[in-house]
Known about the structure:
The protein is mostly beta strands. It contains no helices and 28 strands. It has one domain: YVTN repeat-like/Quinoprotein amine dehydrogenase (Methylamine Dehydrogenase, Chain H, 7 Propeller), CATH 2.130.10.10.
Amino acid sequence: MRDNDGNPVYVFAGSYGSAGQEGIHLLTLDREAGTWERIGGAAGVENPSFLALHPNGEWLYAVSETNGGAVVSFSFDLESAAFQERNRQPSEGDAPCHLHVDRTGRWLLAVNYTSGSVCLYPIEPTGQIGPIADFIRHEGQGPRADRQEGPHAHSAFPIPGTDDWVVSDLGTDGLYVYRLDAEAGKLVLRCRTSEQPGAGPRHAAFHPKQPILYVIEELSCEVAVYRYDSARTDKPLEQLQRLSTLPDGFSGENTCADIHLTASGRYLYGSNRGHDSVAVFRVTDEGLLEANGHASTLGRTPRNFAVLGDEWLLAANQDSDEVQSLRIGPDGVPAASGRSIRLAKPVCLQIVSAK
């Protein structure tokens, strides 16, 4: 299982597994054929739904998406496929669903979905997670009484080249931009941008060369495009565009989940749960989007996916218990390769290459 430079391609998968199961999986992917092999895993964490890698490529972090949730640190060795849990810290809230390590490797951000809160943790030199340094709970609600009765923080992503982070809150239709003050160990709110009422922002992606932010909205089933100007203190986010993730005429139930670009930034994808597809968008030179069709993920409920270079889209189909390899064509549209691997309730995919 080798990449184009002869190195193994490793993929971590999180899932809705019980603590008694190996809910974290270590897979290898053949970059040429798209075939999979499971080589190891880690147990001991209830619902390790989302994972994050440390920049040093030696430590892995997972949420435990439960009431009274937690974040957990692991060390791992790719060659032996061995995991060792280092420690865990409470998330001080319910259903932590996303986490991310900052570019320096010194800080970990996590969000609690049900509680609508954001946690900042220091990462110790050993890779262990220190006690919470800062904790912020959002307030408010949206127009959807069934899904937006209160705040529901869904993700925290660093904005490239800055110390700023964008937190998407599905419950309040808000994009919160925080600046990480590393010396003080604090998150400083720079602004809150209101999305369309009932949109339900969920995940974000960033153009690799331009200050453009793409947000996928779970409830409206749209992608919103923003220009980000870090020098502006009043309104650093300026909305440029909105496009639907669904084909014309679709009338079934659907919610959106994840969003990623190819490495080149030429194509962007957003996942549909219900239509069970990825919406494909062509990215213009200015960073705007043009609809470019849809591709089936060949399974049910693509909650998360990953993009490898400009070659593969790897879809985690939660409700059909599989991860599919879809080969990206010259037109940017992924197509079936006939390659998949069975995993129970896969939720998150993180790609890492051996050093």
